[in-house]
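Extended Data, panel c. Modelled sequence:
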Amino acid sequence: MSVSNRELDQPFLGVLFASFRLVDVVALCAVPVALVAVFLLPMELRRAYLFSYGAPTPVTAFTANYIHLEIGHLLSNVGGYLLIVPVTYLLSALSGHRKRFYVAFVTFLLAFPVALSYLNLAIERPGLAVGFSGVLMAFVGFLPLAVTGYLQTYFDLDDALDASSALFFVGLALIATVSVNSFETYGLAVASLLAATLYALSVTENRDAFLPNVKAASGVAGHFELASLGLFLTLLVPLAAFPGPSVTTGVVNLYVHLLGYALGFIATYLTVQVADSISVNDGTTVAAR
């Protein structure tokens, strides 16, 4: 659906309030409230439900992702959530993909904690896993699809899936560049940039339709800024989430962040691909591409 079909002469706030649902606000706010509530529990109780690499259990695999032992760690994850998830929700809801957002939202919060904890066991080490950052990075992995879906709806982007893949691989290249300085990570950066270029080339074939819509909508307050913010976060957060590792904890944190980012994108991408295939087989219109 192109920008001309979305009646962008209407104020952005009007479009925003028209899609407002109280249940959405409650659902989005429930996560940071839960993280803070868990942090207020006694330290002994919180420590009892951390995920031990030496003695893993399904219960602690889930609970450890919602536990923080230090206020700084809690604030960084809550702050990241309040910055990333509402923007992802707005991009999805305003582009007609509210259901897609909630499928990802529930999956990330309920299934990903256990999956990320057990995948963490791939690296043998003593210690405990703690914190929400892996799950938060799954939402960052979902951002490329949310952004390109929004661009498709309001700016007539031709192929949202290829564009989202290009953004994901750009993010992966940035991660490889700023994390660990090694031959392997530099190779990953080069391979990711090559993949991003190949996906981007397929999208630019239709730039004659896309660019005029971007120019037309750039003067419409709200829509252009929201799209720009989504793109900014898509590229900035991978840089911020993968600083150079410390001696004791960096490898563990970077590994969990990478897992969350990659699995968040792959899971949502495959879900959209399957939905597209079902729509095509049923003879219905495909809206995701």
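Residues 1-7, 245-252 have pLDDT under 50 and may be disordered. This feature is highlighted in the accompanying rendering.
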